[in-house]
Design goal:
- There is one protein chain.
- It is built from two helices and six strands; from the N terminus they run H-E-E-E-E-E-E-H.
- A six-stranded antiparallel β-sheet has the order 1-2-3-4-5-6, with no helix packed on it.
- It is an alpha+beta fold.
- Helix content is about 20%, strand content about 20%.
- Keywords: Signal.
- It comes from Pseudomonas hefeiensis.
- This is Lipoprotein.
Length: about 140
Amino acid sequence: MTAIARITLLTLVLGLSACAVQRPPQPSAPLPPIPSSGPATKPGPSTAPSKPVTPNTPARPLPRTSASFAPPPGGNSHWDAKLGVYVLDNHTNTFYRQRTYYRWSNGWSRSVSPNGPWEETTIEGVPAGLGRQFR
C-alpha cells in the first residue's frame, strides 16, 4: 500500500471515530416564565366539568393471525390470543403453534400433522395458555 493511501485511510478512520465518541448535548435549564405586562384578570366562575362522552364504537374484531407465529399450513384456523395458539376450525380441540399440532382428548398429545400420528405428552409439553385452559 502506498504512503498516500495509508495516510488517507488513517485520516478517514480517525475522522469517523471522532464522530462515534461525541457526547450528546446536555439539556439546558428551562426558560423562566414571561411576566405579563397587562392588568391581571380574574378567571370567571368555574363550572363542574361534564362527564366525557364516549362514542359507541363497535368492538374490534379479533385478529385471524398472530404477529409472532405463522398460521398452520393449509388449514382453516384463527388465532386465539388468550390461549396463544391457532385454533383449527375443522378439528375439535386441536391447536397449532410453531410447526406442532396439539390435541386435547382426556389428555394432551402432539403431532407434526393435524391427522397424526399423535404422541402423548404432559402439560409441560404444551404452550402455557393451553395448559391453563384444559386440565
